[in-house]
Amino acid sequence: MSTKPSDPREAAARALCRREGHPENITFEGKPMWQSYLDVVDTVLEAIKPEPFGRHGQEPASWTDYTPG
């Protein structure tokens, strides 16, 4: 039984890999397949990143307040 990755980026990349029907740990371009999804994860994280303080005169949002819809 595998354990849940402690790195949220890795957990998200592995989930995307599984969703696409690919084994997470097969080798693809010299690395585990899940690592090929990190660029997608980073794109999503950048898109949902809270605005920096002061940009709109409000305090920054907290990641702990984020609830996926």
What does this 3D model show about the protein?
- This protein has helices spanning about 10-20, 40-50; strands spanning about 25-30, 30.
- Strand 1 and strand 2 form a beta hairpin.
- It has a two-stranded antiparallel sheet.
- With about 70 residues, it is mainly alpha-helical.
- The two termini are about 30 Å apart.
- The radius of gyration is 15 Å and the shape is elongated.
- Helix 1 (about 10-20) crosses helix 2.
- The model has no long low-confidence stretch (mean pLDDT about 85).
- The protein has a domain at about 10-50.
Number of helices: 2
Proportion of residues in β-strands? 5-15%
The end-to-end span amounts to 29 Å
**What's the story with the biggest beta sheet?**
2 strands, antiparallel
As residue ranges, the low-confidence spans are: none
Strand order of the main beta sheet, please?
A: 1-2
Average of the residue pLDDT scores: 83
Structural Rg: 15 Å
Order of helices and strands: HEEH
- Estimate the global geometry from the Cα principal axes: elongated
Q: Please bin the fraction of helical residues.
A: 25-40%
Q: Could you tell me the number of beta strands?
A: 2
Backbone structural class: mainly alpha
Walk me through the topology.
Elements: H1 8-19, E1 27-28, E2 31-32, H2 38-48
Antiparallel strand pairs: 1-2
Helix pairs in contact: 1-2
Which features would summarize this protein structure in a list?
69 residues; mainly alpha; two-stranded antiparallel sheet
